[in-house]
Amino acid sequence: MAIMRRVSMLAIGAVFALGHMGAQSAEEEEPLSAEERAEKRQLDAQIRSWQIVPKRRDEPLRYLNISDYEVREIQLVAEKYLPKVLLNISPVVTGCPCEEGPQCTDQVYIVAETAQSSKGLQLSRVRNSWVVGTVQQWFLRYDELRSREDKMGYLNFMRARNELYRDFPVCVGELVPAENTTAVTSKADSKK
User: Fold this and answer.
1) Among residues 24, 181, 37, 192, which one has the least CA distance to residue 105?
2) What is the tens place of the pLDDT at every residue in 51-101?
3) Which residue of 79, 84, 105, 154 lies most exposed, with the fewest beta carbons within 10 A?
């Protein structure tokens, strides 16, 4: 039942987004009210979250894949979030979604498995340290909310979900096309 609700809400959101984009041409746009801007921001956050959901990426690969020291560092971070059995560390890829900020240089996806299930976690290399990045942290909060959905009731869940989308990370640098998701900062920012 909860899955059907999620699928129908995603479909409604996608139809609304496509209809809204096609309904206004650039020359007939009117200024948006504060409520409309908030709705647009939430819809943009939903669409962007679907584009950058944490998952295994296999390119572009970092020149030097991973060192023994980095494996130990990743294991220490993973212990806080995943079961003790670490199954897989993906290849290190260069670049991060711009929402991770300009200090993010690389990412890995790790998977741990228990007897009942497996769980993945995306780590970002920020300032030469492997950390759970801002996007993965947001998705951990989203997963925790979804786990409570049946106990909350539909309206309370939707309110909490909408509030969570208002907290979705935004790009710190310039937003670049999806095929090149590395954060890019302006020249003015890099001179500081």
Assistant:
1) 181
2) 999 999 999 999 999 999 999 999 999 988 887 776 789 999 999 999 999
3) 84
Q: How far apart are CA 113 and CA 86, in angstroms?
A: 7
Token pair in block for residue 97: 């979604």
Share of the chain above pLDDT 70, in %: 74
Which two structure tokens, joined as six digits, stand for 94?
């260069």
| Cα–Cα dist 178/161, whole Å | 25
Query: Please, are residues 85 and 110 in contact by the beta-carbon 8 Å criterion?
Result: no
Q: Hunting for tokens 């669409």 — which residue is that?
A: 47
Residue 187 pLDDT level (bands cut at 50, 70, 90):
very low
Closest to 75 in 3D by CA, of 130, 128, 136, 138 = 130
| Angstrom distance (rounded) from CA 100 to CA 46 | 16
- Is this prediction's pTM over 0.85? no
Q: How far apart are CA 11 and CA 7, in angstroms?
A: 6
Cα atoms in the 13 Å half-sphere on the side-chain side of 88: 13
The domain segmentation of the chain, as residue ranges, is: 1-20+33-192
- Specify whether the CB–CB gap between 163 and 92 falls below 8 A: no
